[in-house]
């Protein structure tokens, strides 16, 4: 059982920056993946970025060069630093935790990111 608490969403202007945080608690195995997905109105949920317990990262094309995912293992927390935000980045961002040992997925409640002038 894993619980995820997201924070950091809000309203920013185009070109601005925002940092999302996701803290995991509960039964955390040593082999896992954590990341961020997003869902905009009228669109399917899509991967933004993820990081594994081994430190490997992966970014979706729209996030490459602008977003950075990182982690603090001591706090079981993953971060998403978003720079150069565009209107098309506006969405509900969901934290994801994948327990690779048990093949179980967990999702946060989501945090709203709005990009507007």
In short:
Helix content is 0%, strand content 56%. It has 117 residues and is mostly beta strands. The strands form two sheets. Strands 2, 4, 5, 6, 9, 10 and 11 form a seven-stranded mixed sheet that branches.
The geometry reads as globular
- Strand elements, count: 11
Portion in strands:
over 45%
Query: What is the averaged pLDDT score?
Result: 95
Q: What oligomeric arrangement do these chains adopt?
A: single chain
Supply the helix-strand structural class: mainly beta
* Overall helicity: under 10%
User: Unreliable segments (pLDDT under 50, ≥5 consecutive)?
Assistant: none
Q: What is the count of DSSP helices, taking H or I runs of 4+ residues?
A: 0
Q: What value does the Rg take, in angstroms?
A: 14 Å
Let me know the largest β-sheet. Answer: 7 strands, mixed
User: How are helices and strands ordered from N to C?
Assistant: EEEEEEEEEEE
Distance between the termini: 40 Å
């Amino acid at each position: 059982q894993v619980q995820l608490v997201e924070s950091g969403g809000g309203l920013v202007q185009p070109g601005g920056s925002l940092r999302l945080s996701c803290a995991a608690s509960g039964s955390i195995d040593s082999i896992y993946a954590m990341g961020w997905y997003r869902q905009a109105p009228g669109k399917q949920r899509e991967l933004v970025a993820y990081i594994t317990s081994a430190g490997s990262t992966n970014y979706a094309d729209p996030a490459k060069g602008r977003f950075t995912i990182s982690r603090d293992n001591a706090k079981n927390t993953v971060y998403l630093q978003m720079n150069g935000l565009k209107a098309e980045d506006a969405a509900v961002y969901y934290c994801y935790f994948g327990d690779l040992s048990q093949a179980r997925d967990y999702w946060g409640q989501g945090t709203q990111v709005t990009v507007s002038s």
